[in-house]
Specification:
Layout: E1 4-6, H1 12-17, E2 22-24, H2 28-32, H3 35-46, E3 51-52, E4 54-55, H4 72-88, E5 93-96, H5 99-102, H6 110-130, E6 134-137
Parallel strand pairs: 1-2, 2-3, 4-5, 5-6
Length: 145
């Protein structure tokens, strides 16, 4: 069994020193980097004493994937970029948590919201499969999602 810790990439040395097997950083800041900054990050991650084997918080809080503000085309483009980037950083697992992004807004039909979430999960799963990454859904309570 391997045990990881959710922490920023900058904490890799401390996480390794504590005896953890891998690091689980947040996706959305990585997806937001420009190309030059991302290339520098790839070099940095390859030199770390610990692997970034899993990534969490795929969607930023302000990117709605459920409700009237959801945009399936924008989501698909974002997912393709984010998944390719975490793949370049060594991801084996991609956690879809992002409670604020997937929360059904008040007044929105719950079934429509579930359909939107399912569509997003299919998109994530398809992109993850292209990179041999396992996508998982973080079970969140009703206050979070």
């Amino acid at each position: 069994m391997k045990i990881g810790m959710c922490a920023p990439i900058d904490a890799a040395g401390a996480v390794a020193a504590m005896g953890f097997d891998f690091l689980e950083p947040i996706v959305f800041p990585i997806a937001a980097l420009d190309e030059k900054a991302f290339e520098a990050l790839v070099k940095h991650v390859r030199a770390l004493p610990i692997r970034c084997a899993a990534f969490n918080m795929l969607f930023p809080r302000d990117m709605r994937i459920v409700g009237p503000e959801a945009d399936a085309k924008r989501t698909a483009a974002y997912v393709a970029r984010a998944v390719s980037r975490v793949a370049a950083l060594g991801a084996g697992i991609l956690v879809v948590g992002s409670g604020a992004s997937r929360m059904v807004p008040q007044g929105w039909d719950v079934n429509a919201g579930l359909d939107q979430f399912a569509e997003t999960l299919a998109c994530v799963g398809n992109e993850a499969a292209k990179h041999d990454i396992t996508a998982v859904i973080e079970p969140l309570n009703t206050r979070e999602s």
